[in-house]
Amino acid sequence: MKVLIVGGGGREHAIAYSVSKSEKVNEIYVAPGNAGIAKTPKVVECANIGVMEFERLVSYAKEKEIDLTIIGMDDPLVGGIVDEFEKAGLRVFGPRKNAAILEGSKAFSKDLMKKYNIPTAGYENFDNADEAIKYLETAKFPIVLKADGLALGKGVLICNTKEEALDGVKEIMLDKKFGDSGNTMVIEEFMTGREVSVLSYVDGKTIKIMTSAQDHKRAKDNDEGLNTGGMGTFSPSPFYTDEVDEFCKKYIYQATVDAMKAEGREFKGIIFFGLMLTSDGPKVLEYNARFGDPEAQVVLPRMKNDIIDVIEACIDGTLDKINLEFEDNAAVCVVLASDGYPVSYEKGFEIKGLENFDGKDGYYVFHAASKMDNGKIVTNGGRVLGVTAKGNTLLEARANAYEATKWIDFENKYMRNDIGKAIEEA
């Protein structure tokens, strides 16, 4: 098979790595890819095509005689890339536009959960800033403001006071900090508890749950600083117990798939459940319609199945025949970022030490933002690399991952030093 992967970050590198292990695949193409993805086994070419250039991507897939395209990113999914590929008679993995709305509109997903009694935080939707401000006059604090649309994982504000919330409404709805994503806004009750990420494969009717993970969104240690796309993650989460799993299977996972089908929005692809384990039981924080980043970097290396078998079963509606299996171990990913991320940072610095990962079993370096410059691999964004390591236990995996971060160096390298610290409390 020839496989095309659409995207160019750490998640897509993890997908490319998994695809490269399949005996069914002999050539991998990536658009646009990055310098690390280009060096992945079986990757033939990284094409300089943007993820929203649907016509060019369809033409490229036809030209290269691609057998299967995997869409990694949220923007093209929400924009309807799967519909365009299907119209052209091409085999593609990911939800259609009418199903990707599960991530594309927080207002839609909250209304869906309310309608089908899927546990989530209390909320109200607003498309008018004055109405939102009026609502805040009698609201309980802390409170959460969410831009309705996609915002690179950063469109969520936790406001401890009314003043902060009023500033937040201005930021999202009036100043349009997140662009048109802030035309509608969700105001949600603040939930407390442990956050857990659970990825799943879905074929429209059947859902198969992957191993759990836990992300670290804030830029700085002790969960301080601004929200980011994710500064590191670990898998499995010791807080995701059998009891939690049983509850979620009964009231959240299948219920979501059935709800989407009932709405005429059959979902085929990946559903990422962002859960909050509250004192009242697990509740849905958010849905994503694709692999998490950096969750994919700790979940996919632990998956025993051939990823192509699972993806094809999702497309063909035969997922019920797949027995999804994961290694009985753990993995931790620490993101190496450019100092100053997510606000302002310099790029273009040479990345040294990548060769230290060659031939080291259980150690991975997934490139999120790198490019070739005069024969050297240099930094090309905020989140640069995801250093992932496995271990027999979470503590061992954490120690291995932090040891591996020392093997790499670039100017203005920055990371959190407490990824997976919660493991010690488990």
From TrEMBL:
- Reported cofactor(s): Mg(2+); Mn(2+)
From the UniProt record, give one GO term of the biological process aspect.
purine nucleobase biosynthetic process
Xref: PROSITE patterns: ATP_GRASP, GARS
Q: In which pathway does it act?
A: Purine metabolism; IMP biosynthesis via de novo pathway; N(1)-(5-phospho-D-ribosyl)glycinamide from 5-phospho-alpha-D-ribose 1-diphosphate: step 2/2
Give the Enzyme Commission number.
Answer: 6.3.4.13
Class of this enzyme = ligase
The UniProt GO MF terms for this protein read:
ATP binding; metal ion binding; phosphoribosylamine-glycine ligase activity
Q: Which UniProt keywords apply?
A: ATP-binding, Ligase, Manganese, Metal-binding, Nucleotide-binding, Purine biosynthesis
Name the reaction it catalyses.
5-phospho-beta-D-ribosylamine + glycine + ATP = N(1)-(5-phospho-beta-D-ribosyl)glycinamide + ADP + phosphate + H(+)
Is ATP-binding there in the keyword field? yes
Query: Pfam families given for it?
Result: GARS_A, GARS_C, GARS_N
Q: Is Plastid found in the keyword set?
A: no
SUPFAM superfamilies assigned:
Glutathione synthetase ATP-binding domain-like, PreATP-grasp domain, Rudiment single hybrid motif
Task: Show where the ATP-grasp domain sits.
Answer: 110-316
Q: Extract the Gene3D superfamilies matched here.
A: 3.40.50.20, ATP-grasp fold, A domain, ATP-grasp fold, B domain, Phosphoribosylglycinamide synthetase, C-terminal domain
Query: Which InterPro entries does the UniProt record give?
Result: ATP-grasp, ATP_grasp_subdomain_1, PreATP-grasp_dom_sf, PRibGlycinamid_synth_ATP-grasp, PRibGlycinamide_synth, PRibGlycinamide_synth_C-dom, PRibGlycinamide_synth_C_sf, PRibGlycinamide_synth_CS
> Where does the signal sequence lie?
none
Q: What HAMAP family does UniProt report for this protein, alphabetically?
A: GARS (MF_00138)
The family note in this entry says: Belongs to the GARS family.
- Put simply, this protein is called Phosphoribosylamine--glycine ligase
Q: Which source organism does the UniProt entry give?
A: Eubacterium uniforme
What is the phylogenetic placement of the source species in the record? Bacteria, Bacillati, Bacillota, Clostridia, Eubacteriales
